[in-house]
Amino acid sequence: MKYADLHSHTTLCNHACGTPDEYLKYAQERNLAFFGVSDHIPWPVGYDSEVRMKETEFPLYRQIVRDLQKKAAGSGTEVLYGIELDYVPGRMDEVAKAIENEPFDYRIGSIHYVSFGFDDEATLPLWESEGPDYVWYTYADLMCEFVNSFDFDIMAHPDLPKKFALYPSDMNRFHKRLEEALKVAGEKGIAMEINTAGLRKKVHELYPSLEILKMAKAAGMPLTFGSDSHAPEDVGADFDLARELAEEAGYRSILTFRNRQPVELPFS
Ligand SMILES: [Zn+2]
Ligand SMILES: [Zn+2]
After folding, report:
1. What is the distance in A from the centroid of ligand 1 to the CA of 95?
2. CA-to-CA distance for 136 and 161, rounded, in angstroms?
3. pLDDT tens across 19-49, in order?
4. Which ligand is closest to the CA of 37, given by its number?
5. How far apart are the C-alpha atoms of 60 and 73, rounded to whole Å?
6. 109 CA from centroid of ligand 2 (Å)
7. How far is the centre of ligand 2, averaged over its atoms, from the C-alpha of 134 (Å)?
8. Count of other CB atoms within 10 angstroms of residue 192
9. Is the peptide bond before 44 cis (omega within 30 degrees of 0)?
């Protein structure tokens, strides 16, 4: 079985640790066929700037990945050049323009914000004042807008609002709305991500739930695996659990990407 970990970070984002070499070392020790670097994008400029590289650091990011690709050449672990971008309503033209000629192997699309960064512990008082319903339903609405309006390859951690184990009053309402986004994603060939970082958070679960993963399968979405590692030892973590969940939902393969073209890696 060839595994691809397509979701990892570097210290350029100001909330990760470890050197790129250390991440690669874990990728190789865990026999990953593909290791993708996908740090947080610096655009739109000024957006959530404390937890991402500056625009002026972007050439350094590109160089870090290119250097790692050279180091890994011939080792059995292929390093990929990815990016994790956020949906920022009203500012996606700036993002599209900034990356239109950048030769990423893939683009990960994420939502970490409603009107506040809901996956940041510091916003728990806002969770309290606005309520979980607001966070979850707004998140699903934004995901619908995102898949309809922007070109990306992988939908990251689709039920991220469960991070702190705070739930909406009507999960069915969330599922119905998210399902609309998954259908569009399926038509566009956007992959669903099983993200193992949830196991390391208060919720102690993979993202997404089995129910959402089954919806993604029914919608025709292919699948990727990501550790969302912000520390070297998390690279490739818990992929056997991810595979169990994938198989339970009916998946028989995952994808990796080169130059934004999907490559299928069958289970077995
Ligand atoms: Zn991060
Ligand atoms: Zn991430």
Report:
1. 18
2. 6
3. 999 999 999 999 999 999 999 999 999 999 9
4. 2
5. 20
6. 10
7. 23
8. 28
9. yes
pTM listed for this prediction: 0.97
**Hey, what are 102's tokens?**
């950048």
What is the Cα Rg of the chain in Å? 17
Domain that holds residue 187: 4-266
| Nearest CA among 186, 209, 199 for reference residue 240 | 199
Residue 84 Cα to ligand 2 middle (Å):
6
Distance CA 240, CA 128 (A): 35
Name every residue whose Cβ is closer than 8 Å to that of residue 202 and which is 6 or more positions away in sequence: 163, 164, 165
Q: Do 209 and 195 form a contact (C-beta atoms < 8 A)?
A: no
Q: What is the whole-number distance in angstroms between the Cα of residue 233 and the centre of ligand 2?
A: 15
Structure tokens at 59: 């050439």
pLDDT tens digits along 38-79: 999 999 999 999 999 999 999 999 999 999 999 999 999 999
> How far, in whole angstroms, is CA 35 from its chain's centroid?
14
Q: Could you tell me the distance, in angstroms and rounded to a whole number, from the CA of residue 60 to the centre of ligand 2?
A: 19
Q: Which ligand is nearest to the CA of 109?
A: 2
Q: How remote is the CA of residue 109 from the centroid of ligand 1, in Å?
A: 13
CATH number at residue 181: 3.20.20.140
For residue 244, give every residue at least 6 positions away whose Cβ sits within 8 Å of its Cβ, in sequence order, or none: none
CB count within 10 Å of CB 56 equals 8
Structural domains of the chain, count: 1
Separation of alpha carbons 191 and 255, rounded Å: 8
Q: Ligand 1: distance of its center to the CA of 100 in Å? A: 23
In the block, residue with structure tokens 């038509």:
187
Ligand lying closest to the C-alpha of residue 230: 1
